[in-house]
Amino acid sequence: MVFIASTLSGRVTGRFGPRLPMVIGLAVGSAGLLGMILAGAATNYIFICPMLLAAGFGTAFTMPAMTNAVIENAPEERSGIALAVLNASRQVGVALLGSLISRRVSFVPGMHIAAGVAGGVFLIGCVLSFFAVQQGKIKAEI
Fold it and tell me: Which of 16, 24, 59, 114 could form a disulfide with 97 if both were Cys (CB 3.0 to 4.6 A apart)?
């Protein structure tokens, strides 16, 4: 899924700019993550797979466009710092979600909380991308 989504995202970003793939990717990823709240210990894999595919596709579809937006909008002399902040924030997010899962007695309640938080953050990112990213440029006031 990552190979397909990131390749497709690069083509869409090249043609339309980063806004469209960021909005679509974050919306699809949010749907997959929020859908995981419905999964339980006895849930059939056939039910879980579409949610995992949506979360993976959404994330992989978003990241090339997001990286492109950061590179295009950061001053040239600070592009390395901008990309480092982007990658560090992604890693911090993964670590925070992992801590939400590990702090529960069993996996499923922690997974529900982490999926809800991640899905909500993706949804907020989708809305912000829709309003802040326009035609390949991020508005200066954001």
Answer: 114
